[in-house]
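STRUCTURE:
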């Protein structure tokens, strides 16, 4: 699993259409009315990575297995959701469980698709949703703090460690800021992460434009991109309508179709790349005649942790990792060439995984 990403936004911004396109399914009902998604939909997709195909070709792998990315389509939030308005409030718990948030903003005009506020304004939409998420976090912490303080006074060390962190997060939220803007020290970071605050999660904006603007964006998406930059968050321009069409085409025809629209890659690829950067993830590979497979791990994870992604026994019994950098594997035409050129390294438990590493783990259970 690469990471899981919750798709949030107001009703009728294209969340379910995007979800259907990205997962190439119709698991989520896409309809022109609010709250058509009444259960969170989960879909997994293969993460596109041309390096995997290249490695498989060199090794003559019989099977190619990409790493997986999980999307969770969550019902549209509306103003007042944190107080129970609409159906969005019941899904706040689902948002807390995801690793990152893809906030879809409507950046297209279409008289046939109703906008809940009557006009297209992506910045206003973003502020409505994010205010509701901040209010939900604020309510959660305000209810939690009195009990924590009581336990801390009674000598509970865990509660004593949480109290100052909760107060810092509350200070930010009461000031109209997301929890991620709280002044948390490195030592406090593990405690902060355990609070599972929605507005502490990494967020990116997915700017949904009409087909004609997919390559260059439009005035609405430009406004939203500027808004994202002000907050130091990534944004991706995408046309959910185009993604839906691409998903229905045979793989061999997708490139020509994208080229006709002056697009070099699918929106999925751009969303994945932004998501990986957001969560600071890297991909490593295992390659052989039977299978070439991509795996995902956090950046600078040590070799045993990478081994554990494959199987817990690999981590428990880790001895060393036979390691070849991707560029060396390709330029030297595989493992044998890399070994002969002295580019196959034996790395130990403290080795930090690099993006593109090709591993063979030695272990003993």
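SEQUENCE:
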């Amino acid at each position: 699993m690469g990471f899981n990403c919750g798709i949030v936004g107001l009703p009728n911004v294209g969340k379910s259409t995007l979800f259907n396109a990205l997962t190439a399914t119709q698991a989520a009902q896409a309809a022109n009315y609010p709250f058509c998604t009444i259960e969170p939909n989960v879909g997994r997709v293969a993460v596109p990575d041309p390096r995997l195909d290249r490695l498989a070709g060199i090794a003559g792998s019989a099977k190619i297995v990409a790493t997986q990315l999980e999307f969770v389509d969550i019902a549209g939030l509306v103003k007042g959701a944190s107080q129970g308005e609409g159906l969005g409030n019941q899904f706040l718990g689902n948002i807390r469980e995801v690793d990152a948030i893809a906030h879809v903003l409507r950046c297209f005009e279409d008289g046939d698709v109703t906008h809940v506020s009557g006009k297209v304004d992506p910045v206003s939409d973003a502020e409505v949703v994010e205010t509701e998420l901040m209010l939900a976090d604020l309510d959660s912490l305000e209810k939690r703090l009195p009990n924590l303080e009581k336990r801390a006074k009674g000598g509970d060390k865990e509660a004593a460690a949480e109290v100052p962190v909760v107060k810092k997060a509350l200070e930010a939220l009461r000031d109209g800021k997301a929890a991620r803007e709280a002044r948390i020290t490195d030592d406090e970071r593990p405690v902060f992460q355990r609070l599972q605050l929605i507005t502490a999660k990494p967020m990116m904006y997915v700017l949904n434009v009409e087909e004609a603007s997919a390559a260059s964006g439009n005035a609405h998406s430009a406004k939203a991109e500027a808004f994202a930059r002000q907050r130091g968050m990534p944004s991706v321009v995408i046309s959910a309508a185009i993604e839906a069409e691409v998903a229905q085409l045979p793989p061999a025809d997708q490139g020509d179709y994208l080229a006709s629209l002056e697009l070099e890659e699918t929106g999925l690829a751009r969303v994945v790349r932004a998501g990986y950067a957001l969560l600071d993830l890297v991909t490593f590979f295992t390659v052989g005649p039977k299978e070439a497979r991509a795996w995902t791990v956090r950046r600078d994870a040590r070799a045993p942790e990478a081994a554990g992604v494959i199987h817990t026994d690999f981590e428990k019994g880790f001895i060393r990792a036979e390691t070849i950098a991707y560029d060396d594997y390709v330029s030297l035409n595989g493992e044998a060439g890399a070994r002969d050129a002295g580019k196959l390294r034996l790395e130990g438990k403290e080795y930090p995984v690099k993006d593109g590493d090709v591993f063979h783990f030695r272990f003993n259970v």
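REMARK: The chain has a mean pLDDT of 87.
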